[in-house]
Design a protein that fits this description.
globular, alpha+beta, single chain
């Protein structure tokens, strides 16, 4: 087997930013693996069409809005099959503020569909599009490297374009993921580092404040929330649930924490609440206690 040399170096544009860090930057490579996927194998098609991302100008230098992972879904359509590529960004400098992100999605990352390609029965490209400014899908007419479209992040809420300035490029390792009966955040649950990095970013940017209230564009520490996800079928209705802290476990007394939400919801808990003190009540429904909740005392998946 031919030996492989791997070199890691910071681009010149990042040197100054790295030196400004409070603590010295360190890169530790724990595992390095190369996997060959040949034509005809199940995942080859998705890999062959995976986009290359050019980062938004200035974002890497500020360690902001970084593409943390990319996943692909394969969806059958009438005359073809679609490969849908989505990216989890560490945050968004524009667009939805952190308090709305938490209230709506229970996260401070930005998850965006970036590219869709439809392949016919012979595997030929039938049509392809990307999500541009204003969340509008546009036909892709840009440059490719092989079958890989080159996309450029061009807005502060991480919309992309098929043209733009040359900036540092990324090709995240592609992850196949089927979102059947779960929210998109299940991808993050499977890769919990995404929560850690995004939480560090909003704290570094001053968007975290104890007692942060809705409308303030600030939030309490994301590590102090419990996150619930529900899957069900509702028609002209909303799902309600209550979460309380047992009085025999904490000295503060009973603290009901009501919330109403459609599919996914975070609730700010007392800092000393742990998994054994949490009680839930609702109409019959399938709940999943999302595992990034209360990271000091990890919570596993729990169905009701």
């Amino acid at each position: 087997m031919t030996p492989l040399a791997l070199a890691l170096a910071a681009p010149p544009t990042l040197h100054e930013a790295i030196f400004r860090l409070e603590r010295p930057a360190e890169v530790v490579v724990t595992v390095a693996a190369i996997e060959s996927v040949t034509e005809g194998e199940t995942f080859h098609e998705a890999l062959a069409h995976a986009p290359i991302l050019s980062t938004r100008r200035g974002s890497l230098e500020r360690f902001s809005d970084l593409p943390l992972l990319m996943w692909v879904e394969t969806v059958p359509v009438e005359d073809a099959r679609e490969l849908r590529y989505s990216v989890v960004f560490s945050n968004e400098d524009g667009g939805t503020p952190p308090d709305r992100l938490m209230a709506t999605w229970g996260r401070v990352t930005d998850i965006e569909l970036v590219y869709v390609v439809a392949l016919d029965r012979q595997g030929r490209v039938a049509r392809e599009s990307y999500q541009g400014k204003g969340h509008v899908m546009h036909t892709f007419r840009g440059r490719k490297e092989g079958n890989h479209p080159v996309l450029r992040v061009v807005t502060k809420n991480n919309m992309v374009s098929d043209r733009g300035p040359q900036t540092p490029r990324l090709a995240p390792a592609l992850i196949p993921f089927a979102l059947e009966g779960v929210a998109r955040e299940a991808v993050m649950d499977a890769h919990p580092r995404t929560y850690r990095v995004s939480g560090q970013e909003v704290r570094r940017e001053g968007r975290v404040r104890a007692g942060g209230r809705p409308g303030s564009k600030q939030i309490p520490d994301p590590r102090e929330f419990i996150y619930l996800e529900a899957c069900g079928v509702l028609t002209d209705a909303r799902l309600a649930f209550d979460v309380g802290v047992r009085t025999d476990a904490l000295d503060e007394g009973d603290q009901p924490l009501p919330s109403r939400w459609s599919w996914i919801g975070p609730i700010d808990l007392p800092v000393d609440a742990g998994p054994s003190t949490i009680e839930m009540g609702s109409e019959p429904c399938t709940f999943r206690l999302r595992p990034q909740a209360l990271p000091v005392r990890p919570v596993g998946r729990q169905d009701r």
